[in-house]
Amino acid sequence: MTATPTIPVTIGTYEQIYHIMITSAPKAYDGGGIMYMEDTYDSITKQDERIVLVPEDAMEWAKGRYESGLYYFKPADEWIGSTIEEKLWERLYQKGE
């Protein structure tokens, strides 16, 4: 698997590294610890896709799970990291209102 953009999430003393991935699999394929971020559309392949955050220790499981249904599972573009970080902050802020 090629290098993927990552985002660290720290809550108190707990830290988890998440890989920012793109998949065409439906949400039913997501497993424990995988965070759905948003739906996207690939204008080249003409397919709906989703951006998901996959914990580092679940990467192999997620790859097998998503690809078992003949869906793709690929790294997101590097530039998306800052956008994902903003979206995580927005979610946390909305939950606190």
Number of domains: 1
Q: Helix segment count?
A: 2
Taking pLDDT < 50 over at least 5 consecutive residues as the criterion, the unreliable ranges are: none
**Gross geometry:** globular
Structural class: alpha+beta
> Beta-sheet strand percentage?
35-45%
Mean pLDDT over the full residue set: 88
Percent of residues in helices: 25-40%
Distance between the termini: 40 Å
Q: Mind summarizing the main beta sheet?
A: 5 strands, antiparallel
The number of E-state strands comes to 5
As a whole number of angstroms, the C-alpha radius of gyration is: 13 Å
Order of helices and strands: EEEEHEH
Care to describe what's here?
By secondary structure, this protein is α+β, with helices and mostly antiparallel strands. The protein has helices at residues 59-68, 80-96, and strands spanning 6-11, 14-23, 35-42, 47-55, 73-75. Strands 1, 2, 3, 4 and 5 form a five-stranded antiparallel sheet that branches. The longest helix has 17 residues, at 80-96. The mean pLDDT is 88.
